[in-house]
Every structure is written in structure tokens, then in C-alpha cells.
Specification:
The chain has 389 residues and is of the alpha/beta class. The protein is built from 15 helices and twelve strands. It is globular and about 65 Å long. The mean pLDDT is 88.
Length: 389
């Protein structure tokens, strides 16, 4: 880290501590804060929690802190505001790394909860990767200190918790896997009318098998790009008569190549569709590479195919928490032709999907958000829950 960057981080840290210290001496607020620094609005777990809190009678009090971190005074002001909320509120909930919460923690009688933004544990991250451990150590910081201020961390299963505990450098006792993951609730209890509404919105033709293609990004978050190794023309030639493909890149990246006009009707660009779980609901098959969407899609007990021409390269760069070839939810393909023929044959191993689901989910029944609010939010507002510092 350069001297200039180090100085900026020091200034940010002191500003955060100042705002937090002011909040700590003021009366505590009966308030829940839902926060993210990756988007200008909340989604996923945070959005589910917000909806459940609004639906209670009376509604439970909460505010949203959502911004996209950028260099400059604007982000510094938002970080100071977030630090004030950490020091003043009863419960502070985040769904990703959140810089103010690496500097300060909840005051006594309050709690900070990490609900994370994905299910399961796929690619190794944070301290599970030696390069990340070295990154923090070079900066003279205890690696686990970045995550020390969480009182509770949500996980989808005990096995997931063990992976997260290693990555976060935190004791497994901090993890809760008995509540479920709020964002999975959308996958349960939907009426046929809901499916038809989503299909109309996406303009999916009738009587087509729907393939959701949802790869993860390549490169860094700051310079994310989508893979271009799937040959849509080959898919069209083999499957075009009775299939349709929903194209869903990772939110950090867009597909670099515009769709060719003659693929219209077969390929639908779902890049800007707001909720990927709704895309899952209307999809018959998932095709992905190394994306965590495999975990949630497995809850639907529908076929999953893994398209990974660059598997060796990706595995060497990241590493996985499970054996990709033998413990994944579906077969691995390295050419589009092989994938297309597999999809055309329609001989799918759903037992592999169920085994994968059972390993990575302890509780998934459509009531996870309700449990989170009942067992974390409501007691936190009363000052009696298990997450208290």
C-alpha cells in the first residue's frame, strides 16, 4: 500500500471513530440499520428483511444505508453516517464487507450481523486463500480483525459455516445456520400466476424449455468482464426449435458482445432484470460456471450443467471449497457442442442436485426471513437477543 493510500485509510478510520464516539454517548435508538456499500439500493437478503419488517403490525423501525463506495469526500461522509448508526442503533445488518464495521463495532447492548450476499461456499475467498492472508499481513494487520466486529454471521449450513469461519478468521460459534437464508424464500410457495407474470415480463415464448445461463465474472471487481466462451450459435442450431436462453451476467459485468439480431427469440438478455431468483423460478435448467447461483437453484431440484472450458486456470487462480468435478450439482462440459447435446438429450441426474442441496442447506422452507426477524430483529430491538455484544 502506498504512503498516500495508507494516509487516506488512516483519515477514514479516524473519521469513522469520531462519528461512532459521538453516537455512543447519546441515547441508544430503537432502530435497525440495513447497510451496503456496493449498491445504491438494497437487494437480496437485506431487501427480504426490509419487506418482512414493513409487513409486521406495527411495522418494525429500520433505515437503509446504501451507497457505492468511491474515492472522495462523498463516500467519507457516508462512512461517517454509517459509523454513527453503528454506534447509535440496536442492530446493524450488512450483506458484504463494510469498511466502517471493520473499524468500529456495535456498542454494548447492540449487535452487528453479517447476512452475506450468497449461499453456500464455492470459490475460496479472504483467509482461505494464502494470497489474501499475505495481503493483510503485509499491511501489519491481524487478518481476522477485518471481520471481528460481527456478533452473528448467517450461513446456510454447518458445512458452509466451517468454510466461512476459515475465510473470516472467526470462531464457528459466531455463525447461525438454523435460521436459513432470507433470499431463498422467494423460491418457495409461488403460484402459477406468479410464473406467468415473470414470463410475460421477460417475453418468454410459450412451450419452450428455459435455460438460464448465469456465469460469474472474470478479472477483478473493478475491471470485471463476462466470459465469451459459450457459442450461442451452436446452442441455437441444436436447441433453437424448442428452447430459449436467458442471458444473465454477474451484476459486476456485462456481456461484451451485443446479441446478434438472428438470435432474437432464442436468446433473451436478462442483464437488467432486478432479481435473479425470479429468473430461477421460470427456468427449467441452469447453466453456469463458478457462480454461487448453483446453491439456490439446487433448492428447486432442477437440472444444473457446469460449462467450464477454463476450469484448470480458474481453479489455480481461486481454489474451491469442494471438488468441482465430483461434488458439484451437475456434469462439467468444456465445449458448447457437448453441452448442447446433453441439454438436447434431457437425461438429467437430479439425485446429484439433491445431494448437493442437502450438504449446503440446513434449513430452506420459505420462512427464513420470518425466523430472522423473530429471532434476531425483534429481540435486538428489545435488547435481549443472542446477537448482543
Amino acid at each position: 500500500m502506498s504512503v498516500a493510500a495508507s494516509s487516506v485509510t488512516l483519515v477514514r478510520s479516524w473519521a469513522i471513530r469520531l462519528a461512532w464516539s459521538v453516537a455512543r454517548v447519546l441515547p441508544q435508538r430503537q432502530l435497525v440499520v440495513l447497510a451496503t456499500s456496493n449498491r445504491t439500493r438494497i437487494d437480496g437478503n437485506l431487501a427480504c428483511i426490509a419487506a418482512e419488517m414493513r409487513a409486521r403490525n406495527p411495522p418494525l423501525p429500520f433505515v437503509v444505508v446504501a451507497y457505492r463506495k468511491r474515492p472522495g469526500l462523498g463516500t467519507l461522509a457516508r462512512e461517517m453516517a454509517a459509523a454513527y448508526h453503528i454506534g447509535a442503533s440496536r442492530l446493524f445488518v450488512v450483506d458484504d464487507q463494510f469498511f466502517p464495521l471493520t473499524v468500529v463495532g456495535a456498542r454494548p447492548g447492540s449487535a452487528a450481523v453479517q447476512v452475506w450476499h450468497a449461499c453456500g461456499a464455492f470459490k475460496k475467498f479472504e483467509l482461505s486463500r494464502q494470497d489474501k492472508r499475505t495481503y493483510w499481513m503485509r499491511r501489519g494487520r491481524e487478518p481476522a480483525s477485518v471481520n471481528r466486529n460481527y456478533n452473528v454471521i448467517l450461513a446456510s449450513s454447518e458445512h458452509t459455516a466451517e468454510c466461512y469461519a476459515e475465510a473470516f478468521g472467526q470462531p464457528v460459534e459466531k455463525f447461525a445456520w438454523d435460521l436459513g437464508v432470507p433470499r431463498t424464500d422467494l423460491l418457495f410457495g409461488n403460484e402459477p400466476a406468479d410464473f406467468e407474470s415473470i414470463k410475460r415480463r421477460l417475453r418468454i415464448p410459450a412451450n419452450r424449455r428455459v435455460i438460464l445461463y448465469a456465469p460469474t465474472f472474470r478479472g477483478s471487481v473493478a475491471a470485471a468482464r463476462s466470459p465469451n466462451n459459450l457459442d450461442l450459435r451452436t446452442l441455437h442450431r441444436v436447441l433453437g426449435a424448442d428452447h430459449v436462453v436467458l442471458l444473465r451476467p454477474h451484476p459486476h459485468a456485462k456481456f461484451a458482445t451485443p446479441l446478434e439480431p438472428d438470435l432474437g427469440g432464442f436468446v433473451i438478455d436478462a442483464s437488467n432484470y432486478p432479481e435473479v431468483n425470479e429468473l430461477m423460478l421460470v427456468s427449467d435448467i441452469l447453466v453456469t460456471d463458478y457462480s454461487s447461483v448453483i446453491f439456490e437453484f439446487a433448492l428447486l431440484e432442477r437440472p444444473i450443467a457446469l460449462f467450464a472450458p477454463d476450469l484448470s486456470e480458474h481453479e489455480a487462480a481461486h481454489g474451491f471449497y469442494f471438488d468441482y468435478r465430483s461434488e458439484g450439482p451437475g456434469p462439467v462440459f468444456v465445449t458448447t457442442a457437448e453441452l448442447a447435446n446433453y441439454l438436447r438429450a434431457g437425461l438429467f441426474d437430479l439425485e446429484a442436485v439433491r445431494r448437493f442441496r442437502d450438504r449446503w442447506f440446513e434449513v430452506a422452507d420459505g420462512h427464513s426471513t420470518e425466523r430472522f426477524v423473530d429471532q434476531i430483529v425483534v429481540p435486538a430491538l428489545a435488547g435481549t437477543d443472542r446477537a448482543h455484544a
